[in-house]
Amino acid sequence: MKTKLIYLFILIFNVNTYSQLSFIEKNTIFKAVSNGEIKFADVDNDNDLDVLITGNHENTNNATTTSIAELYLNDGLGNFTLDVNNNFQKMYETAVSFFDFDGDNDLDLLMLGQPDTGQPVSRLYRNNGSGNFTLVTNTPIIGVTSGTVITADLDGDNDLDIFLSGYKNVNDGRQSKVYFNDGSGNFVESTNNPFIPVSGASSDAADIDNDNDLDIILSGYNFSNNAYITKLYINNGQGFFSLDSTNSFDGFNNGDIRFEDLDNDGDKDIAIVGGTSAFNIPIQSKLYINTGNGSFTEQNATYDSLILSDFDFEDVDNDNDLDLIIIGMNSNSQTISNLYLNDGSANFTLQSSVNLLTVHKGDVAFADVNNDNKKDILLSGKNISNNGSLDFIKLYVNQSTLSLPYYTPSRISVFPNPASLNFTISSENLTIENIEIYNLLGEKLLHKKVNNTSKIEINSSNFSKGIYLVKIKSVNKITSKKLIIK
User: Fold this and answer.
1) Superfamily for the 412-485 domain
2) In what order do the strands lie in the sheet with 241-243?
3) Which residue of 2, 3, 18, 32 is 20 to 30 Å from 219, comparing CA positions?
4) Considering the chain, what is the average pLDDT of its residues?
5) What's the rounded Cα separation, in Å, for the pair 138 and 128?
């Protein structure tokens, strides 16, 4: 088969670090929430990030709360309107994921959580490609609250499966489940389930041992042993997991856990924050650095120790490493919202000049809401002040400016596109240093350092079918390309 190579003339911009970080609060129509989630995704395929907001909403201080699940559509400039065509199950204490479970190249939705009355529920919604969602009935997916969910290709068959953990009900207690996708969007519960059931749960998935499959880390409270746990489970490539016995991590709950390449060496490290014992005392943060083969060593975590917390990672200062925003409550019962910059070696420095509303029992996310290639911040949760504990939601738009902007034409190609097992990135006049691949949620799936070449082949066999963004970085330059995996 012939491969058609098409060169596109595009503009590449300088990526010197920002001369000064600046975030400006922008008024929105979002309802203030706590005990919920913020999830960005391009649900209507118009090339901007929309947002789903779940959680408890109260209109006045200490008033009776009601839960919400509301979708807001973006006009591309960061102006949002409430979607009135969808009617999602209202819930709080949620675990939410946008993912393409039926392979039709749009983002469907899975929601787990607690409605205002009754038992925890699960809701799976199918997207028609235009942001209109239909409830999928008769799924085996259980409902949990105070839980976590991962949607990823766990068994290596190029469709998206489900892992979840959380509290189900009084009779069944805490549950952890894996559901395999049959390729047609139907789910079957896995018979292999070594995962400890926990509440106050957090989890993440990444290939930590470089064997081309996704491993899982899970933290939370294990009621049967009255223990707070953090456990790593190794995938055999077919979705069968075994408990890792080579690493030991402190147990956490009511916080967050994340696989990220924090020291820029091409493998996934582990960041954790939360409570580590009864009554969530003491509160700690931990950072574990991957040695390259799936073994981890602890490094001092130079960011806040918080409970009822959440964090997110993005390169906000354009220096090719992952920075950190974190929210929660510290050991003095103070609410915290802080931005930290990474020096490239997983050492984080507080940016005291960036003032954000302090919250806990909420969520925080980076997202480029106005398509200016800068990461903005949306945070939600309860703020404690002299007026009591109030729900809030705040959008902060990134107004930072580059120190030396300039533009230069370049010729970049990504081929074949659509791709399946492999694709090649080629440049006529750039020396490639780094490759990053993102999904439609803005989540980084691959970071690859390159030894100053103009051509590189990428293995895409582990990527599910769908649309991706490829970022190609060279000396002081960056460009993005759309990639389709078929």
Assistant:
1) Macroglobulin (MG2) domain (2.60.40.1930)
2) 199-206, 215-222, 227-235, 241-243
3) 32
4) 90
5) 19
